[in-house]
TrEMBL record:
Protein name: Pyridoxamine 5'-phosphate oxidase family protein
Highest classification ranks of the organism: Bacteria, Pseudomonadati, Myxococcota, Myxococcia, Myxococcales
Record organism: Corallococcus aberystwythensis
Domain Pyridoxamine 5'-phosphate oxidase N-terminal, chain residue ranges per copy: 29-149
Length: 203
């Protein structure tokens, strides 16, 4: 199988990036980019560490990632499964990448930077939601920002209701866990209790 093993071959294969692809990258949260963060209710946080890579979905009402200043973002860490894979990685390697989505918009916003885990009480209180504080807040020092063009989301038809998949067409959480646990977890019971558990444990 023929593969690419050096940068020179890769660059010959793909050619030179267009001027707009280069100019759109900046080292701060330019006013033109801020609305993508302010209107985003969902983003993906990518990290790396000794145990490997992690890409973690993060969501809350739009604006949940706060623009502190032109070089700083604040991301509250809401209740989850307590694996804390992302946070373990940040402790070992502060480099992070964020990909912001805005419903109905095909462009996404990419932010790269370095993160630290803040547990200062006054910081946690800023992100109180429904009476619950986050366990921590990621303070992200921004290094590069640029928008990703719409091609991938257009090809995917991500926002097209006609392409949406009914949840029942995929294995349920319970059936997956039952299969992977070799029956230790009872799938039907897990699926039955899940809606109520989610309702009371979002924050």
């Amino acid at each position: 199988m023929k593969t690419v093993n050096d940068v020179e071959t890769l660059e010959r294969l793909y050619g030179v990036p267009g001027q707009s692809s280069v100019l759109k990258e900046v080292d701060h949260l330019h006013p033109a980019y801020r609305p993508f963060i302010e209107r985003s209710p969902f983003m993906v946080l990518a990290t790396t560490g000794p145990e490997g890579l992690d890409a973690s979905p993060r969501g809350d009402p739009a604006g949940f990632v706060v623009i502190e200043d032109a070089h700083t973002l604040l991301l509250p860490d809401r209740r989850g499964n307590n694996r804390i894979d992302s946070l373990r990685n940040v402790l070992a390697d502060p480099r992070v990448a964020l990909l912001f989505f805005v419903p109905g918009v095909n462009e996404t916003l990419r932010v790269n930077g370095r993160a630290s885990i803040v547990i200062e009480p006054s910081m946690l209180e800023r992100f109180t939601f429904e009476g619950k504080l986050p366990r921590s807040v990621l303070r992200i020092t921004v290094e590069t920002v640029f928008f990703q063009c719409s091609r991938s989301l257009i090809r995917a038809g991500l926002w097209d209701p006609a392409r949406h998949v009914a949840r029942t067409e995929l294995p349920s959480n319970g059936s997956i866990l039952e299969a992977l646990s070799q029956g230790t977890i009872e799938g039907v019971e897990y699926d039955r209790d899940l809606p109520g558990r989610l309702k009371t444990s979002l924050y």
